[in-house]
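Fold this complex.
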Amino acid sequence: MLELRLVQGSLLKKVLEAIKDLVNDANFDCSSTGFSLQAMDSSHVALVALLLRSEGFEHYRCDRNISMGMNLNNMSKMLKCSGNDDIITIKADDGSDTVTFMFESPTQDKISDFEMKLMDIDSEHLGIPEAEYHAIVRMPSAEFAKICKDLASIGDTVVISVTKEGVKFSTRGDIGTANIVVRQNTTVDKPEEATIIEMNEPVSLTFALRYMNSFTKATPLSNTVTISLSSELPVVVEYKIAEMGYIRFYLAPKIEEDEDETKPQV
Amino acid sequence: MLELRLVQGSLLKKVLEAIKDLVNDANFDCSSTGFSLQAMDSSHVALVALLLRSEGFEHYRCDRNISMGMNLNNMSKMLKCSGNDDIITIKADDGSDTVTFMFESPTQDKISDFEMKLMDIDSEHLGIPEAEYHAIVRMPSAEFAKICKDLASIGDTVVISVTKEGVKFSTRGDIGTANIVVRQNTTVDKPEEATIIEMNEPVSLTFALRYMNSFTKATPLSNTVTISLSSELPVVVEYKIAEMGYIRFYLAPKIEEDEDETKPQV
Amino acid sequence: MLELRLVQGSLLKKVLEAIKDLVNDANFDCSSTGFSLQAMDSSHVALVALLLRSEGFEHYRCDRNISMGMNLNNMSKMLKCSGNDDIITIKADDGSDTVTFMFESPTQDKISDFEMKLMDIDSEHLGIPEAEYHAIVRMPSAEFAKICKDLASIGDTVVISVTKEGVKFSTRGDIGTANIVVRQNTTVDKPEEATIIEMNEPVSLTFALRYMNSFTKATPLSNTVTISLSSELPVVVEYKIAEMGYIRFYLAPKIEEDEDETKPQV
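Structure:
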């Protein structure tokens, strides 16, 4: 039996909004340690990894490891029916082919049960090794989202270049070119407004803006985003989920001289 | 001669927004007692009844009973040109084939006259007898609107079941099922947030969500909605219009085993 | 070399929003006195004239007069990438076929350079003589915008009639007629809410609402609009740009009995 009670239910809504456009169907894996998901996007270019640790739930019961295949669009439709202050409980009986989302209003005057059919989804779980990155940029997530959106109005790809002084985002399109430089800045009033650059060596990598803009759908989950760059690895765009876990997006850089989208080498 | 002056003109705008999607053309009936309308929706399934009592107008002159046929979409276009704080006066000369809507800004610095052609519309006025209902539910109108909208993302029909403890709204669709229970609750800070259930006997009836969602366009008119249910009668969904009257929507329940939409037996 | 630094960069964004739907491509003329533009709309019916005086810029360097042809839609795309509090600098090297828009965030932590290709655009500069008008109406720009929008839901043209008492805007369409009278009113709390009418002789002129509604895109630039009317001249609809200059729109009246759109006789 599975019963996961999340007091801040709106968080689960935001998680679904962050990934449903990228991934159609996916297995949610539930074990004693947490509720997680790993899935390629539908064009098999980007990878999403989600973790919500068991400690973040008010009540967490998972008798045996299970993998529940869900259509994320349908799941999102159901979660959208919850109120923003509702407590959400995910429930499944052993061997059942359905999952139930229960929404409780703060006053307990309104209780909703949404039952969804599960799907059989083939998936292979990729081991993602811990890696050393050439540069790690932490910046306000809203700033990163605006930059990706702005550049997409000019071009299709973004070159992210990191030096000790700052990080540069560049693009080129039919109507012209754009370069946006964000400087390292740690002396801000609010820590979440800082831009912090850890750099082992300078790096300059090219990515498809379409995917970057998909990743920024996770912006409401966190005030900051962490971008980990290495010339031999897919970039990791990570949004922490307060006290619970994270969403990480992986995307392989585009090879210079080769404008085709390449699969990530995770 | 007809001259009806409504200080809170925005109320008339809201009335039109509430019914114009359901009804295309309708006769407004004007008598010494008030300004009213009764009309079937264009597919002849639901019935709307509006009453604005003469006492609610600052000035109310109606020399003889008249029935004015209007295209509600055109009337809505004109009313949308009024400011939210404008005073609206409805004027018609005896025997005229036009009606005039006059809008006065609060400062009287802007006066608008919109003249609309009247239409000849055949209509029969249905007598709606006072009836006993098995159950009457009064609840916050925004809550009811959210429930109807949420359920429509899952299924096409809603089963409304009333017991002493609460009212349950259920649906079923391709992606799963949904049950929303709202409990009786009379101990709230604000009376308009209460959910009050008067029940003579339990009742469970099925309705087309499409119509319910049309009815909830009247939500801006009132903080509360009253739903009167009986197994032998169309449901009545009523929005009171403060100190003036009401909008009531009537819809026949769907017969079990028969998924076709049936006409209301008013 | 050209370098124009505008502290209130959002103003340039608003200017582009005001004219980009009316004019596709235009020459911006830069001289020691200011940054200006004069262009016919794409159907050659209306004329736009923009002036931003050099004194309004924090830094203004223009070594020699130049005319820079720009696609306003592309320019708008780039300016939309600036933050609302950003300082915008327009830069061009002598003989270059590109222009650069530089955006500096208030904290200087984010610096963006957008480079756009210039175009060769044929244009003739029309001399617009100072003229005497029969009537000049100054009114709140939001009020004028609402009137033009409201009337366009009823008809295609607006008759603007000025008397000493006020200004009347009228239209006629399939669903009826509309008359909106705005009275002269100089005794208001805030000067920008006044409606002031200077009249030498009564005037009544007809204009295409489609163009009037395009002109009102400039509403965010100024709280007031000035409408100058004369039976022998195109109307001038002017929005002042605080301490810098103006946008003026010119449109020839429609001739009675002739419903075709006529070119302005500027």
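The longest strand of chain B covers residues 46-53.
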